[in-house]
Amino acid sequence: MTYNPSDVLSAIDNSLLTVLIAGAISFVGYYFYYIQGIRMGFRDKTHGIPVFANMYFFAHDVAFVGHYDRWFNEVDHWLFKVFWVALALFAILEFTVHYQTIKFSKATVFPNLTGSKWLAAYIGLQLAIAAVFWFIFNLIEDYLFLIQFTIAVVVSVALMPLMLRHRQSSKGQSQSIAWALIVTPSVFFFGFLPQVSPYFLGSHYVLMGLATVGVGIWYMLGLRKMG
């Protein structure tokens, strides 16, 4: 048993201001992360968001948007309708990163493939990650996608140090992105989630939040060393 969806909706209404502020900071922070990553990517002619992360986010957001009937008829709560619009728009940013990766990063993603084989492998990887997402989604009782949001936040931070290490440079990255990946998960884990359900006050979620923020700080320090 995870959270009770009805209790979550009631908690949102009962803590409306706090949920709005924390939710707005979380969404704005991730919009900033993506827009800045895309800007840095075009500047440096590379992808600005880790490939696996972008593919996972794309699978997540397409799934969320695809559940239109759930949000607008079954749940019928204004906040999840706002989430639907926000994630529909976010999918455009993710598609832009797909474009960057295909245009600029052929030599680093699948260096031994060219032409149609490269594109087929890239699409196949996206489909495989979508299948992984769908497996996890069906494995966990997560009617409102709150656990899936949490996984996406963890993925957004966890893969940045790996990209930095792989590139051995700050290409496609910036200190402002690093700060966004410290502030935004902090607000999400310790501001938004506890307000919507006591389930997210469990020690495993607290430790997950602390670890995610810690990795964000580690990434920022590593980025500074790269200059």
Count the DSSP helices: 11
Tell me the count of domains: 1
> How far apart, in Å, are the first and last alpha carbons?
46 Å
Principal-axis shape: globular
The run of helices and strands is HHHHHHHHHHH
Which regions have little confidence, pLDDT < 50, spanning 5+ residues?
Answer: none
**SS-based class:** mainly alpha
Number of strands: 0
Radius of gyration: 18 Å
Helical content (DSSP H or I, runs of 4+)? over 70%
Strand residue content: under 5%
Summary tags:
globular, single chain, 227 residues, mainly alpha
Describe the structure.
This protein has 227 residues and is an all-alpha fold. It has one domain (5-226). Helices cover 82% and strands 0% of the residues. It has eleven helices and no strands. The protein has helices at 5-14, 16-44, 51-66, 68-75, 78-104, 106-109, 115-139, 146-158, 160-167, 175-196, 203-226. It starts with a helix and ends with a helix. The model has no long low-confidence stretch (mean pLDDT 95).
Strand and helix layout:
Elements: H1 5-14, H2 16-44, H3 51-66, H4 68-75, H5 78-104, H6 106-109, H7 115-139, H8 146-158, H9 160-167, H10 175-196, H11 203-226
Helix pairs in contact: 2-5, 2-10, 3-5, 3-7, 3-8, 4-5, 8-10, 8-11, 10-11
